[in-house]
Design a protein that fits this description.
Elements lengths: L2 H7 L3 H19 L4 E4 L4 H11 L6 E6 L3 H4 L2 H9 L4 E6 L10 H8 L6 E3 L8 H10 L2 E3 L5 E3 L7 H10 L6 H6 L14 H11 L1 H10 L7
Helix pairs in contact: 1-8, 3-8, 10-11
């Protein structure tokens, strides 16, 4: 999809209704929590979610979990700088570790940072995977966890095309992988344990120099 097509699609009533519905939900959610933060990966879904939230709460804390390989995987440095130039309240949490990540370590790192917070926004969508579809159907978009904190998922009903339209029509900063592989690509600040091979193949095809840096950083990369 190009920007011209996105701008035309953005005029359609169903798309406008989705944006308005999501914006209304975000406004409602902010009224029902005390001190939220945004868990932002700077992927396409997080970018749209962040832009919508900032329209209602510009100073909200934006937390990003980075890893030793983050800046190797994509142009995170540029994208983050672009968002910071827009005035976001940015906080980066560094998660050390090897190539294969410990499950939930990233979420724990975001949670452990100081602050009297009671809730957080995440950019997950039903369309992304069977597991997320089941979870969102079961718990909904405003879910109180066992620890008492509230998980807010405003992008639940968005489709890939809707995300692409919003990104392009609003000129949001996005990672280069989307420009090369399209908006169907999956991005992550750390190599995901569930599809390591796919992530490595993508990096090798897009940026052989980056792939070689990763191999030097994590020698066990060759086993995948």
């Amino acid at each position: 999809m190009d920007k011209k097509t996105a701008l035309l699609y953005a005029q359609l009533k169903p798309y406008k209704a989705l944006v308005n519905k999501t914006s209304g939900f975000i406004r409602w959610a902010l009224e029902h929590v005390r001190n939220p933060y945004v868990a932002c990966s700077f992927g396409k879904d997080s970018a749209v979610m962040l832009d919508l939230i900032l329209r209602h709460k510009p100073g909200i804390s934006v937390r990003f979990a980075s890893h030793p390989e983050t800046r190797i995987l994509d142009n995170y440095e540029k994208v983050i700088k672009d968002w910071i130039s827009r005035g976001i309240n940015y906080c980066e949490i560094y998660c050390d570790g090897g190539l294969v990540k410990v499950k939930h370590a990233q979420r724990d790192a975001l949670d452990d940072i100081g602050g009297d917070w009671d809730s957080f926004f995440v950019g997950i969508r039903q369309q992304e995977s069977f597991g997320r579809r089941v979870s969102l159907k079961k718990h909904g978009m405003f879910h109180k966890l066992a620890n008492g904190r509230i998980k807010i998922s405003p992008m639940s009903e968005w489709k890939e095309k809707d995300i692409a339209v919003y990104v392009l029509s609003n000129d949001l900063p996005v990672l280069s992988k989307y420009k090369i592989e399209g908006f169907s690509a999956r991005t992550t600040s750390g190599i995901p344990r569930t599809n390591i091979e796919e992530c490595l193949i993508s990096l090798k095809q897009r940026d052989i120099e980056g792939y070689n840096k990763l191999c030097r950083l994590f020698p066990d990369t060759k086993y995948f």
